[in-house]
Amino acid sequence: IRALATRLASTPERRFGAIAGLAAGALVIGGTSAAVAAAPPVSSSEAAVQAGIDALAQASATPSASPTPSDAGAGADASEAGAADTTPTPTPTPTPTAGPHGEPLPPAPTTVAGDRVSAIGDSVMLASAGGLLGRLPGIQIDAAVSRSMWAGDDIVAALAAEGALRDYVVVGLGTNGPVDDGVLQTLYDALGPTRTLVLVSAFAPRDWIAGVNAELSSFAASHPRVVVADWSTAIAPHLDMLAGDHIHPGQMGGDIYAQTVAAAVDGVENQRADVGYQVSLIRWSAARALDPDAAP
């Protein structure tokens, strides 16, 4: 400080050098402050994605449960414990499949197990991996950063060729660029005639997102076995559950993503069960009309 004061009180040349040094220092401090201010959104989104990567790594490293030993190999302690426990195991009451007149009963709501679901997505799905694994244990997830819809058909085709593609195929690839009907059709054709395609809508502060979501909805409306999991509508009221970039979900946002996907998958399964019930009811009603005196 003393040296700076001396320079300021000295010749014009030395005074100019001191002022220039002060200005450069101010720029350095200002630039550092701006970098620190800009860092949280970037680091929070990276942290969200890394949490998903860690969840997938932990799931792949977790060994399956060991089989329960049989009575023959359980040892003396197990045999004694079994001998001491004489309480009979209650027989579960079977769920009735028909009413008092033989009419079919409506199906109970059901949920789809994760081992029937393949999920292919971008970094938003990757950040949501923890939520998906929690809501749909056993789900197959193939997600990567910066992936677009154009990569989806090759991944689906490869999984199908390996015999690894499951009943429900969830595709969340709308964040990183526009989507057109042609790429969706190619993806749809790669599924084969029996699988269900679940398209996850996109949410991001990007110009193309509205067009992507409109295209996904239009395609689902015009194709059988295609539904939309509306992530955009589900997360819109909960921006605080997204990282600073307003794209990648944190833990609670990932749970919403998983619930949205699971609700879409379960909705398809329950709709099919209801259609089967309606068909059975029509057949029963027709049989009763032909023979009103038939025994229940």
User: What oligomeric state do these chains adopt?
Assistant: single chain
Low-confidence stretches: 31-39, 65-86
State the end-to-end CA separation. Answer: 102 Å
Helix content: 40-55%
Compressed to H and E, one letter per element, the order equals: HHHEHHEHEHEHEHH
Spatial order of the strands in the main sheet?
Answer: 2-1-3-4-5
Based on secondary structure, the structural category is alpha/beta
Radius of gyration: 30 Å
- Write down the overall mean pLDDT: 82
Shape: elongated
Number of helices, counting only DSSP H or I runs of 4 residues or more: 10
Biggest sheet layout: 5 strands, parallel
- Please report which band the strand proportion falls in: under 5%, 5-15%, 15-25%, 25-35%, 35-45% or over 45%: 5-15%
Number of distinct beta strands: 5
Describe the structure.
Helix content is 53%, strand content 8%. With 296 residues, the chain is of the alpha/beta class. It has a five-stranded parallel sheet, with helices on both faces. The radius of gyration is 30 Å and the shape is elongated. Residues 31-39 and 65-86 have low confidence and may be disordered.
